[in-house]
Amino acid sequence: MFNRSRRNLANWFTLTMGSILIIFAAVVYYSEVIDELEELDRLLYKKTIVMAANVKLEQHNGQQQVDLEHVPLLGSMVLPLPESQLVYAAWYDKQKQLVQFFGTIPSDRLLVSGGFDTIKTDSKVWLRQVTLPVYQDGVLIGYLQAAMPMTATETALAEFRLVLAISVPITLGIVALTGWWLGGLAMQPIRHSYDSLQRFTADASHELRSPLTAIISNAQYGFLSNSTALEIQRQRFHKISDIAKSMSTLVNDLLFLARNQNQLPKEFLQEIDLKNILLQITDDYHKQSDVQHLSLVSHLPNYSINILGEPNLLRQAVINILTNACKYTPAGGQVELNLFTQSHWAIIKIIDNGIGIPAEDLPYIFERFYRVDKKRSRKTGGFGLGLAIAQQIIQSHGGKIIIKSLLKEGTSVQIILPIK
User: Fold this and answer.
1) For the packed helices 230-259 and 151-224, what is the interaxial angle rounded to 10 degrees?
2) pTM above 0.70?
């Protein structure tokens, strides 16, 4: 599936960029043709204007006649232009009738009034022709027409076409490879999300399978048992109830992770005092029997630290981390809960001297369903979602969590939140 998607992305990228490249090459070639023609036209015009400058209108026997004897190529009293490259030159009177010519025999009558034209001779040679109306004292005295071969221009354009014919396919190949590489880069987040979803689904199914199996087995035992002892039945119902509560907690955690992916909307945020939240948490923990074997110490400032947030979510994030600290700290150990500020950040620091986390497990502890010690986590009722939920809550408030730990020495967790 991913290779097919990557291939489709590469194909569309190549098609799009290839179309743009071909259009660009066509525009560049058209511009080159225009430039070559303009260069040829300038050269042809210079040669023709030199000839036109030598045409004179003179009085002869009381009549005005055009003197062409001093016109290069056309006249007999002047040397021909050096390296003229002109194929032909012709003079037409103002009635557009042929008077005198040089080179190839032109048409007896002028068919155009002026300007540049591209023509093809009978020998299939392309020529660039110019027709200039010649004036003297503001009076039209005739037309001078000349032509040059386009051999040099055709050669230059042929070489340019060869360059395009080689460079465009090579560039298309590079574009295709780039499209394949970019398609791979674009698919990486999708592949990562898909793999995470697959792993999340497999882990969730595995976690739900065990309690469901326990519920079914206890229910079937109750149906098949012939015992009428009320206490035994109560124990079965109590097990089913506990397992159902555990499943409810798991489902709620999964729903939370699915619904809260991004920054929290501003309407859910309010100004809260972190100090008051941590005081409530420590008071609640001191009343619980699960932490009576520990020393829970809090170091809170004597002033308020206000942030923008959702109090219930922040409370849950701190409780999740504090629960882990108490759960994996042996009897007689100590858990510290600190609150202080640093620059524009509020920092909640939870330190324990418990069993610690192996260095190889630290990069993965925020992944859903990840447990360092799966056997011990099952005994303590954990699903491996607490830290994932805590991280998601803190990130949705614009903060982050930093964990440092040494095996058999303890763990330090910092919750960093922006101050209002």
Assistant:
1) 160
2) no
